[in-house]
């Protein structure tokens, strides 16, 4: 199933020169991963501290784009510049999960937004990432199947943030959007598990 993740090769091609320059000045892939994590936690904290303010929500899409760029850059640095390490692999996967939780859980603090649904979306998304990571343990590859991978979640929550940030009042529509996110996250868990098992069986 198609997902925004499929655009990653083109995105990486645009960022490859930046990655090369960062390596040239002595930056490391783990340092870039750490920067993305700090940025995500700071953005999430802004929404959590000012849940009634519009500016943190309107800032979120920019933060998500920068985070996505940093995630692509650290991957290029690790794979193409000899910086790939076991520590970096663990840190990369853990930071992705922590960043998602930090960025999206604060939506539960916004008045009128269905808090239990927000929490469920984040929990099921973490499970989806765990299923993806467990692929190599059963003889399959790391699974990135959709329809609600990391990039898709970023797009969905970024769009939701913009709608709330421009003044739309939370209500039934936000509940329906979150319910759709939850359904897509559950489908993602199923797809990743099914395809990992199928790949391992081959």
UniProtKB/TrEMBL annotation:
This protein's UniProt keywords: Membrane, Transmembrane, Transmembrane helix
Segments spanning the bilayer are 21-49, 55-73, 101-134, 154-187
The UniProt entry, under InterPro entries, shows: CDP-OH_PTrfase_TM_dom
Please tell me whether the keyword Transmembrane helix is annotated for this protein: yes
Q: Per its record, how is this protein called by name?
A: CDP-alcohol phosphatidyltransferase
Organism of origin is: Methyloceanibacter stevinii
């Amino acid at each position: 199933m198609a997902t925004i993740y499929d655009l990653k090769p083109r995105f990486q091609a645009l960022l490859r020169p930046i990655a090369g320059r960062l390596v040239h000045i002595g930056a490391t892939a783990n340092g870039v991963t750490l920067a993305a994590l700090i940025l995500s936690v700071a953005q999430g904290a802004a929404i959590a501290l000012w849940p009634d303010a519009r500016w943190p929500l309107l800032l979120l899409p920019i933060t998500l784009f920068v985070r996505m760029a940093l995630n692509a850059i650290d991957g290029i640095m690790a794979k193409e510049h000899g910086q790939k390490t076991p520590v970096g692999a663990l840190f990369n996967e853990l930071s992705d999960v922590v960043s998602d939780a930090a960025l999206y859980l604060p939506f539960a603090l916004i008045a009128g937004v269905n808090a239990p649904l927000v929490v469920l979306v984040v929990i099921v998304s973490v499970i989806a990432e765990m299923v993806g990571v467990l692929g190599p343990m059963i003889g399959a590859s790391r699974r990135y199947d959709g329809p609600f991978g990391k990039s898709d979640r970023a797009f969905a929550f970024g769009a939701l943030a913009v709608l709330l940030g421009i003044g739309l009042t939370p209500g039934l529509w936000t509940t329906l959007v979150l319910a759709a996110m939850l359904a897509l996250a559950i489908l993602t868990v199923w797809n990743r598990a099914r395809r990992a098992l199928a790949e391992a069986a081959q």
